[in-house]
């Protein structure tokens, strides 16, 4: 039995990045797996515009917790297999406290496989995503753990592994999106971006129109050079990183004032 942890910075991040892999491993694989979902935040600021300020914060967090539990149930994953790290949406920093938290969590559960947001070569440069991936990568690459789990990054511009999507199960995406009623505005827009990515990835599989792309991270020195993307990808990453503010959440006015004071 493999122990597998799917990391997501916010409660809806798995739905368009690795839902089919998650669904396969939890329900369709011939082997049994111990699967956990680790959510770094509860997505408490995940609504567009200041007109929704009265809903942001703890109230929205409670709703999004339930939305994730409903979505996870589609995969057969119970609520007690979802771990909440308790960080605030938009404020996940690459710092010692967070790294120590990730280390303690991984040391406790000792996963064989980790699925997480891309740390280095991502097209979705949200601060919470990048710093989650960075912390996980740092813990493993610095040999803080006494073993090396397999690490796969999603939302990567430099994928090297493709999980085929069965055409008969393509409706899974819509079922999951419907669970996240507060995020339908975002998920439907993101689906328009992801679908072409799935189609391009499908060319790397045999007999499948769509596939989910991942980057398998290799920690062996002999493979690190091969894992480095070309100059085009590296340049694109720098361009996206320079516009990282476009991926920020929209905070209520009182939160912004507190940030200015800090």
Describe, in plain words, how this protein is organized in 3D.
With 262 residues, the protein is an alpha/beta fold. The protein is 41% helix and 17% strand. A 7-stranded mixed beta sheet has the order 3-2-1-4-5-7-6, with helices on both faces.
Provide the descriptors you would attach to this structure in a database record.
single chain, 262 residues, alpha/beta, Rossmann fold, seven-stranded mixed beta sheet, 9 helices, globular
How much strand? 15-25%
Give the overall shape.
Answer: globular
- CATH superfamily caption: LmbE-like
Mean pLDDT across every amino acid position: 92
Helices and strands: which structural class? alpha/beta
Tally of structural domains: 1
Helix content bin: 40-55%
Ends apart, CA distance between termini: 47 Å
Sequence-ordered SSE layout with sheet pairings:
Blueprint: E1 2-8, H1 19-28, E2 33-41, H2 58-74, E3 82-87, H3 96-109, E4 113-117, H4 127-141, E5 150-154, E6 161-165, H5 172-179, H6 184-202, E7 210-217, H7 221-224, H8 231-241, H9 253-261
Parallel strand pairs: 1-2, 1-4, 2-3, 4-5
Antiparallel strand pairs: 5-7, 6-7
Helix pairs in contact: 2-5, 3-4
